[in-house]
Amino acid sequence: MRFQSFVNFLPFWDASNGGGQSQLSISAPSTIYAKPNVVFILTDDQDLHMNSLDYTPLIKKHLLDRGTFFKRHFCTIALCCPSRVSLWTGKAAHNTNVTDVFPPYGGYPKFVSQGLNENFLPLWLQEAGYNTYYTGKLFNAHTTENYYKPYVNGFTSSDFLLDPYTYQYLNSSFQRNRDPPKYYPGEYSTDVLASKAYGFLDEAAEAKDPFFLVIAPNAPHSNVGWAGDDGDPIGGGTFTLSAPIPAERHKHLFKDVKVPRHAGFNPEEPSGVSWIRDLKRQSQENVDYNDHFYRNRLRALQAVDELVDGVIKKLEHYKLLDNTYIVYSTDNGYHIGQHRLQPGKECGFEEDINIPLIVRGPGVAEGAETELVTTHTDLAPTFLSLIGADLRPDFDGSPIPVHTDSLLAAEKEWHEHVNVEYWGFALGEGQYESGFKYENNTYKALRVIGKNYNVYYSVWCSDEHELYDLNRDPHQLNNLLSDHKPRPHKQETILDIPVAKVAARLDSLLFVLKSCKGERCVKPWAALHPNGDVRTLDDALSKRYDAFYEKEQVKIKYNRCEQGYIVDAEGPQFETNGITYRDGLRWSEWT
């Protein structure tokens, strides 16, 4: 794929055109409308780093070629339910306290118990005068038994996929408005979803009011089977996770395609923290199965590709396309074979957190891409901004500038960090580790991407630390803070600065972010340097701050590992005015 780029503030520069200016067309409504519509298509577990977008020609035609691709978009937690809650609330998982897919730490019941069913995006959109529609997966543990305990608030009309059938491609259950669930045995789930989405577009067009429509297919998530009578999506139950099932018409596709074979795929040398480093190298039989798993993910996405085409045609039919923003993303990324991992997510590696985001609509550059660092906590503010509604004062993110002029301006001052967090297990999927859990997978992490640096830093509840320089090590194979079998000629510097000094800055930045709220999540350096003289990692790397970061700052350290967000386990916290408290005592008093 070739896109025109906003990088280096030269959005119209096209080297393939001899260095001249290319013609960057801007989509714009032919008629001025009071309020635009929004269609949000949210897939499940779609990867960016295994090139899934290369196999969706209709998404390319309608969205990538007609919109802007945000290549540095990240989820802030690589697990579907907490990621979706962050998306719908504009808050990090440590502020929603929904951190898992099942109770007691996650799922729809946790969403309700935290009061979020009365305080999330669809309700704010309705307050702004919008009709709201939703079809597909909302949250995990939203089931055929609890869908009315209570009903989901905020939607003019809805038709939700429900557990335990959410991930059963040929045995889905949908629940419309306040009707009882309806089952669709033998029908392909994404095709059922598509018909419901088109129906909502008919309904929205007839209402003649501005609308917000979410279309959330289960593809390309694994197919999940629950075992007999003990299948319990609230308590966890017994389940298997196998390769996605494509529609019959797509089963023959991509027969020779394999997971991209870069240096990080099933590497000869182990890498990562202890539980990942202890993984055995996959056998050829295992690799062959995972290639099959990968092909079925691509095949399952073909029905989504067709759905996008159908949505465009419906909008064109009603003459709504020119006044509609179409946003395409996923809840989290995915890995297959990288770092010797079986199919799955839940890690902080780039495959799991760097995910697709495409925006098409009025005033959005066509066929463009940007390096602007954005996250899922930015999406709720973005949707409100697109329709001209007031923002919430407690958002942990900022509206993403999607229009050409605002995007160019933002690249000069936009933040360069992503706050990543996770609690609890990592789950193996597929034939070789279906349902197997790695319990010790609790960590805080940070991505920082500037003009001259590109780093990942993490601290684990086991007190392990990671630092990767992705400019030199794009597949995150060389942990610069590992004391395990140092590599020959191990990298000792980043930007010609000793690794330890860089790590000290990153630890302090992450210390602020791991419990941040509101604007502090967007401008964390201001908490460390209230006078405003540090706004980037580059600023903080000045020698004059060595003592501040290396000797004066409190370091991140967990008190213990937990499966969910329990503040007492999280170690020291950064609080107001840079004073660190724990159990009511200042850090100096506590120590």
From TrEMBL:
Its EC number is 3.1.6.1. GO terms for molecular function: arylsulfatase activity; glycosaminoglycan binding; N-acetylglucosamine-6-sulfatase activity. It comes from the Eukaryota. InterPro entries: Alkaline_phosphatase_core_sf, Arylsulfatase, Sulfatase_CS, Sulfatase_N. It catalyses: an aryl sulfate + H2O = a phenol + sulfate + H(+). The conversion to 3-oxoalanine (also known as C-formylglycine, FGly), of a serine or cysteine residue in prokaryotes and of a cysteine residue in eukaryotes, is critical for catalytic activity. The modification 3-oxoalanine (Cys) is found at C80. It holds the Pfam family Sulfatase. PANTHER family: N-ACETYLGLUCOSAMINE-6-SULFATASE FAMILY MEMBER (PTHR43108), SD21168P (PTHR43108:SF8). This is Arylsulfatase. It comes from Tothia fuscella. The lineage of its organism: Eukaryota, Fungi, Dikarya, Ascomycota, Pezizomycotina.
